[in-house]
Write a structure and sequence with these properties.
Length: 479
């Protein structure tokens, strides 16, 4: 509220901000019919999208005529919308800024998706885009973030909108925040740890790998470890065992903060009960399931197709995110009536070890279990070579022989193989800190049998992968 009334928002935007806030609050209490709201927004959005050269080109003349002439939202949703083609990242990449309905200089900020494994996708924002997105998340996070909290926003992505967007949300809730940057050149975290100490930072917002790196760095350099009351994880798919480990390390409460992307804006945000509520007021969602497109109510889980209802300047219509999600329409204890969604990651993130049906999640469940907390395991990387599996770990102290044998045996039982060796190292190879770029899971498994797969990565990522190969090879020679 303070945010809406502050000088940060000009008068004409304030009217929009209040109406969006009112809409969100009514929707989350089921005071207005969400289906009517969505249907009305959908027709308006698609009509407006015809101003963008991209949609002018990809929709046929007949279809465009039908869209222009239609004034019945129910008919549109049921009979015209299903005819609109599904778009993917390649299409929005090919068309780039031509997917916008306004000229580039009418945007407020220019951003791009991270795009480390290909060209980035434009993701510019208008002032209005910040207002609806900020309000949606701000209202949800107000359930557990309070005045007096101090938040660090640690997102090393200067091209993407996330750090600035997070800052706006903190302003909305009315809490102090700062967004420093980890120096990639030196990899030093001293300054960040000092700032956290001096400002009594009690909230962390950023990727889980970044938080873990802070702990590893503090431990390695005998610096005070951060203590947090709350942390919100963004950007990397991580499992429950990782979240639990971070809760142990920080002494605080943690949740996956939100889910979305630079292109789609935010689709869901967590409530105090750690459930990701879907912003149905701003997103029209469908599921791709066995080649059929279904509504979430009838589907449950599938690949998520997004239409961004409030994103008028750069409309995204039936965009296939490639993310697997699972909807839940049961009532959440927090009281918010919006359905919740669980992200199941992307199929490319799932790495199965050999023929045994063992995935990374199962390895993490052992590494980060309560059975191995003295010393604790911070982080790991798996190296596959022929039929051998090497697991390199960092720990808070050197473990005893009994501890190491116990861990080895647990992993051997899981994998039903004798060819496993766990080794404690002082520092993990550079690849390990690239979770934000090449995804958390992929940055933790290095398959020496498929080195050619890494050739696809651009520099300097490729170089860092090779440095990792070298470091690990040296470790292997010592074994
Ligand atoms: Zn909830």
């Amino acid at each position: 509220m303070d945010f809406i009334n502050s000088s940060l928002i000009e008068n004409d935007f304030r009217v929009y901000a209040y109406s969006h806030l009112d809409e969100f609050r009514r929707v989350s209490k089921k005071e207005i019919d969400i289906y009517t709201l969505k249907r009305n927004k959908l027709l308006k959005l698609v009509k407006n999208a015809l101003k963008a050269p991209m949609y002018q080109e990809i929709y046929s003349a007949d279809l465009k005529k039908e869209i222009i002439e239609c004034n019945d939202p129910v008919y549109f949703e049921n009979s015209i919308f299903p005819k609109l083609s599904i778009i993917d990242k390649k299409i929005i990449l090919d068309y780039g800024i031509k997917g916008s309905t306004i000229p580039i200089n009418e945007f407020y900020h220019y951003y791009e998706s991270s795009g480390t494994t290909g060209n980035p996708v434009p993701a510019p924002k208008t002032k209005v885009d910040y207002i609806w997105n900020t309000t949606n998340i701000g209202e949800m996070w107000s359930g557990f973030l309070k005045k007096g909290d101090v938040a660090i926003i640690l997102i090393n992505n200067p091209f993407g909108p996330a750090p600035y967007q997070m800052e706006k949300i903190m302003e909305y809730i009315g809490i102090m925040s700062y967004r420093p940057y980890v120096d990639n050149l030196t990899g030093r975290h001293d300054r960040i740890l000092r700032l956290m100490e001096e400002t009594k930072t009690n909230v962390y917002i950023g990727p889980p790998s970044g938080l873990m790196e802070l702990f590893e760095y503090a431990n390695r350099n005998n610096l005070p470890k951060p203590r947090l009351d709350k942390f919100l994880l963004l950007g990397e798919q991580s499992g429950m065992s990782f979240l639990n480990r971070l809760e142990q390390l920080t002494g605080g409460w943690g949740s996956v903060g939100s889910y979305g992307s630079s292109e789609t804006s935010t689709i869901t945000a967590t409530c105090k009960d750690k459930k990701l509520h879907v912003f149905e007021n701003s997103q029209y969602l469908e599921l791709l399931k066995e080649n059929n497109i279904v509504k979430p109510k009838d589907g449950g889980s599938g690949e998520l197709i997004v239409t961004t209802l409030d994103f008028l300047s750069k409309p995204l219509i039936r965009y296939n995110t490639g993310d697997l999600v699972d909807f839940d329409f049961s009532k959440c204890p927090c009281g918010c009536e919006l359905p919740t969604l669980q992200t199941l990651g992307r199929s490319i993130d799932v790495i199965n070890f050999g023929r045994k049906g063992i995935n990374q999640e199962m390895i993490e469940e052992i590494l980060w279990s309560d059975d191995f907390i003295d010393p604790i395991i911070f982080n790991y990387i798996v190296l596959l070579k022929d039929d051998d599996i090497f697991i390199f770990i960092t720990t808070s102290e050197s473990p005893s022989e009994e501890w190491s044998n116990r861990l080895n045996n647990r992993l051997k039982t899981l994998m039903r193989s004798e060819n496993i060796l766990v080794k404690v190292v002082g520092k993990l190879p550079p690849l390990n800190s690239l979770g934000g770029y090449i995804r958390w899971k992929l940055s933790r498994v290095l398959d020496l049998n498929e080195q050619k797969n890494w050739l696809k990565l651009p520099e300097p990522l490729k170089e860092m992968v090779y440095a990792s190969f070298e470091q690990l090879n040296k470790e292997l020679i010592k074994l």
